[in-house]
């Protein structure tokens, strides 16, 4: 760090700021889904597809986007992508149907991939020889994770001024800022990483087909009740066939998108599992958001503001983790600290699922979540990249992305929703069995509510029906909170379990090894 000239710090900050809008192209409207759903009036299943498709478009285009990014001059590329992002982002405002909205959002997601890579090239080339790799990875994670929370908050604030369209306009302003920064900091228009274009088209098409099946499972698995539906069972069988076809394909391809040779490195195997595990632990955030909106009645601004507490944990943990990795601290030390923070986060929230909770009660748990992300994300990114040769860098990256994003976050989130629904039904059945004349409290509650509706002028029959409906709604709400508590109790145990394994088997008692591959931050 000492060898970096003072004047280049300004350039470095500018280059990193340039990456932020592309990281957050889909984050600005994270809390505005209900408004967008109401605007287009589509069914929940159709809207599920509209939500998932842009993410899968981003992931599917990633390998090709990285190849194309190396062929085009960087300044031209970043200016073109920023301008096209403004067009696609603005076009989504004037979409006449949810289908066109999804198309424009998917194009924006694809452009964001190219934008991220184009804006990262100067940082990788100019500062990689100077930065120790833990520092480079730490800065990337700091910007990516921190900007996500801020963009979700600012996007929600802009939405509160008028409607969800203001969040989109806010993103356009950021793309305009990216154009200005590109004119300032990209002095030369060259393609420094250009090489003969070679791409595994056949493998890419197989991967896209794989993502299409996963998309179907994410969007419709829960509504079809998973394996009880023949189409879901057929889709799962088709996934196995696709994997088999890909394994045959790689035997006849020189540079496949995911080269199985990468799994000869044990850190890639365990790193991919670690990616999945961390993604699974972080994926329970949707439960808290649902608790805030569906039970507590928080509006989107309240939810976004409450989640800002995560930033405190990030601002503490990521710089500390970066420093410890730079000083060659043992991997196990950071892993244990990160898993313990995730365990504390789930444990604290387990005791906070009750009616009447205030936003301040989420403050400490969210700090622990930020600490967990800050400790685990940089070290997992470095660990899975350790000693992997550059020619297998893309394979390492795609393996981690599929593990964390596709299987843990997207597919795992859909499965989690099913678990919650099933647990809710079980708890509601148990609670409903207690609503009998023998339960004096329930009977008193029913009588009081009936009398209330009678005083409102309803007939005895209508008052009785309204009272029973009110009591049923309260039972449904209580059963949902019990389901949330069950999920978080199990997750707390799963978070502390790796600590036991690390201590019993004395794993990770060494610093991170050498890292030579590009730190593509996904």
Shape by Cα distribution: globular
Mean pLDDT metric = 88
Strand count, sense and barrel status of the largest sheet are: none
CATH class of the domain at 1-138 and 160-196: Mainly Alpha
The H-and-E topology, N to C, reads as HHHHHHHHHHHHHHHHHH
**Which fold name corresponds to the CATH topology of the domain at 1-138 and 160-196?**
Growth Hormone, Chain: A
Overall CATH architecture of the domain at 1-138 and 160-196: Up-down Bundle
What's the helix count?
Answer: 18
**Amount of beta strand:** under 5%
The total strand number stands at 0
Enumerate the spans where pLDDT stays under 50 for 5 or more consecutive residues: none
Q: Please give the share of residues in helix.
A: over 70%
What is the terminal separation in angstroms? 25 Å
Radius of gyration, whole Å: 25 Å
Tell me the quaternary state. single chain
Secondary structure category: mainly alpha
Provide an overview of this structure:
By secondary structure, the protein is mainly alpha-helical. Among the domains are: 1-138 and 160-196, Growth Hormone, Chain: A (Up-down Bundle), CATH 1.20.1250; 438-494. The protein contains 18 helices and no strands. The chain has helices at residues 6-23, 33-40, 44-69, 74-93, 98-127, 133-161, 164-185, 201-220, 230-250, 266-282, 285-295, 300-307, 309-326, 331-350, 363-385, 393-432, 440-455, 460-504. The mean pLDDT is 88. The chain crosses the membrane at residues 7-26, 46-65, 77-101, 107-125, 166-186, 201-220, 232-252, 272-296, 308-326, 332-354, 366-385, 397-420, 487-505. Keywords: Membrane, Transmembrane, Transmembrane helix, Transport. It comes from Flavobacterium laiguense.
């Amino acid at each position: 760090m000492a060898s970096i000239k003072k004047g280049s710090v300004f350039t470095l900050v500018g280059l990193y700021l340039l990456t932020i809008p592309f990281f957050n192209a889909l984050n600005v409207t994270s809390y505005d889904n209900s408004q967008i759903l109401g605007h287009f009036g589509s069914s929940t299943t159709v809207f599920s597809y509209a939500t998932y498709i842009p993410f899968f478009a981003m992931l599917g285009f990633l390998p090709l986007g990285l190849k194309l990014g190396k062929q085009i001059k960087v300044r031209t590329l970043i200016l073109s992508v920023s301008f096209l992002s403004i067009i696609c982002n603005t076009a989504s405002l004037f979409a006449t149907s949810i289908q066109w909205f999804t198309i424009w959002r998917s194009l924006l997601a694809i452009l964001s991939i190219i934008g991220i890579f184009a804006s990262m090239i100067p940082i990788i080339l100019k500062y990689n020889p100077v930065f120790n790799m833990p520092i480079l990875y730490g800065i990337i994670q700091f910007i990516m994770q921190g900007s996500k929370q801020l963009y979700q908050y600012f996007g929600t604030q802009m939405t509160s001024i008028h409607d969800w369209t203001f969040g989109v306009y806010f993103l356009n302003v950021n793309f305009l800022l990216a154009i200005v920064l590109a004119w300032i900091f990209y002095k030369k228009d060259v393609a420094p990483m250009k090489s003969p274009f070679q791409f595994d088209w056949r493998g890419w098409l197989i991967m896209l087909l794989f993502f299409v099946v996963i998309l179907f499972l994410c969007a419709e698995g829960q509504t079809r009740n998973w394996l009880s539906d023949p189409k879901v069972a057929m889709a799962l069988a088709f996934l196995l066939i696709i994997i088999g076809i890909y394994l045959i394909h790689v035997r006849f391809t020189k540079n496949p998108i995911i080269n199985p040779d990468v799994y000869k490195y044990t850190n890639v195997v365990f790193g991919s599992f670690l990616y999945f595990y961390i993604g699974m632990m972080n994926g329970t955030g949707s439960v808290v958001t649902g608790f805030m909106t569906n039970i507590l009645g928080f509006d989107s601004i309240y939810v976004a503001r409450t989640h800002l507490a995560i930033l405190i944990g990030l601002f503490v943990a990521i710089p500390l983790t970066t420093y410890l990795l730079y000083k060659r601290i043992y991997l196990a030390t950071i892993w244990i600290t990160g898993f313990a923070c995730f365990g504390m986060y789930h444990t604290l929230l387990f005791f906070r699922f009750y009616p009447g909770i205030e936003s301040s009660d989420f403050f400490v748990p969210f700090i622990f979540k930020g600490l967990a992300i800050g400790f685990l994300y940089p070290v997992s990114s470095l660990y899975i990249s350790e000693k992997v040769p550059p020619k297998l860098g893309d394979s390492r990256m795609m393996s981690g992305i599929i593990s964390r994003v596709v299987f843990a976050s997207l597919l795992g989130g859909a499965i989690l929703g099913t678990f919650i629904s099933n647990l809710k039904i079980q708890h509601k059945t148990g609670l409903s069995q207690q609503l009998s004349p023998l339960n004096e409290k329930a009977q008193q509650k029913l009588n009081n509510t009936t009398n209330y509706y009678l005083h409102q002028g309803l007939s005895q029959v209508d008052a009785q029906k309204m009272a029973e409906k009110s009591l049923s709604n309260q039972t449904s709400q209580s059963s949902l909170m019990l389901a949330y508590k069950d999920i978080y109790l199990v997750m707390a145990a799963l978070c502390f379990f790796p600590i036991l394994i690390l201590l019993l088997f004395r794993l990770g008692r060494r610093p991170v090894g050498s890292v030579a591959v590009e730190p593509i931050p996904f």
